[in-house]
């Protein structure tokens, strides 16, 4: 049974500057986050391979785990701890066959319980629901209500690892306390592509998040 290594789950932003991205992820790890997802919608495959291997070594230095967004082949090539798959990113069963034993596989389930049940049946380690709130990264994303999250938690049981994603901030994270086991954060931790947070800003933001009930 999978358990999140930390309540905060950092997902990297689209950042063209590799050195800045590296320093941002290092700041996240220095702040105690132990699960990082490499999500990159702007780089070439060769760049992604270099970056994912770099970030994977960094995560291992902190006894943390790197998850690759959408790409099983990149996850294998980089030696990452696992992969996160959306609804159109291929079969979880196939990913489980291709990845090393005990790899982590996450599944985006949006606001649909049936997707979560199917993903878990196919071997997903955790399921993610969202957007929990209006998301600056995906403003058109389907919303999952707090009542739905409560219902999903009851249906899936306390041992299922559930992640909330989408628009989660210091101001609203307490609203999903008890409904999810981890929260996935992009802009709240890293800033925006046009105004990326410095390592010092990242550390301050994580300190603020840790002051909230869910993160204790």
Describe what this molecule looks like in 3D:
This protein has a single domain (8-215), classed as TIM Barrel, CATH 3.20.20.70. The protein contains 8 helices and 8 strands, in the order βαβαβαβαβαβαββαα. The protein has helices at 18-30, 45-61, 72-78, 92-98, 113-122, 146-156, 187-190, 199-210, and strands at 8-11, 35-38, 65-69, 82-85, 104-110, 126-129, 161-165, 182-185. The protein has an 8-stranded parallel barrel with strand order 1-2-3-4-5-6-7-8, surrounded by 5 helices. Helix 2 (45-61) crosses helix 3 (72-78). It is globular and about 45 Å long. The mean pLDDT is 95.
SSE order and pairing:
Elements: E1 8-11, H1 18-30, E2 35-38, H2 45-61, E3 65-69, H3 72-78, E4 82-85, H4 92-98, E5 104-110, H5 113-122, E6 126-129, H6 146-156, E7 161-165, E8 182-185, H7 187-190, H8 199-210
Parallel strand pairs: 1-2, 1-8, 2-3, 3-4, 4-5, 5-6, 6-7, 7-8
Short summary:
The chain has 216 residues and is of the alpha/beta class. It has helices at 18-30, 45-61, 72-78, 92-98, 113-122, 146-156, 187-190, 199-210; strands at residues 8-11, 35-38, 65-69, 82-85, 104-110, 126-129, 161-165, 182-185.
What attributes does this structure have?
216 residues; TIM Barrel; 8 strands; alpha/beta
Question: Oligomerization state of this entry?
Answer: single chain
Shape field: globular
Named CATH topology: TIM Barrel
Q: Report the sheet with the most strands, covering strand number, pairing sense and barrel closure.
A: 8 strands, parallel, barrel
The share of residues in extended strands comes to 15-25%
Any idea how many domains?
Answer: 1
Strand order of the largest sheet: 1-2-3-4-5-6-7-8
Tell how many strands the DSSP assignment holds: 8
CATH architecture assignment name: Alpha-Beta Barrel
Whole-angstrom Rg: 16 Å
Which consecutive residue ranges, at least 5 long each, have pLDDT under 50? none
Distance between the termini: 22 Å
CATH class descriptor name: Alpha Beta
Total helical segments: 8
The CATH superfamily title: Aldolase class I
């Amino acid at each position: 049974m999978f358990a999140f290594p930390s309540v905060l789950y950092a997902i990297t932003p689209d950042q063209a500057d590799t050195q800045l991205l590296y320093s941002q992820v290092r700041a996240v790890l220095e702040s105690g986050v132990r699960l990082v997802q490499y999500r990159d919608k702007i780089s070439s495959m060769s760049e992604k391979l270099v970056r994912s291997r770099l970030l994977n070594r960094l995560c291992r230095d902190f006894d943390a785990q790197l998850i690759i967004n959408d790409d099983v082949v990149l996850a294998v090539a980089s030696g990452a701890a696992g992969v996160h798959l959306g609804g159109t990113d291929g079969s979880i069963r196939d990913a489980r066959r291709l990845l090393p034993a005990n790899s982590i596989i996450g599944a985006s389930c949006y606001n649909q319980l049936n997707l979560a049940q199917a993903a878990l049946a196919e071997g997903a380690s955790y399921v993610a629901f969202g957007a929990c709130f209006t998301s600056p990264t995906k403003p058109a994303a389907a919303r999952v209500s707090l009542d739905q999250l409560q219902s999903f938690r009851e249906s899936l049981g306390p041992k299922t690892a559930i992640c909330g994603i989408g628009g989660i901030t210091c101001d609203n994270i307490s609203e999903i306390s008890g409904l999810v086991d981890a929260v996935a954060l992009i802009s709240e931790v890293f800033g925006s592509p046009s105004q990326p947070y410095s390592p010092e800003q990242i550390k301050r933001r994580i300190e603020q998040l840790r002051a909230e009930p869910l993160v204790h």
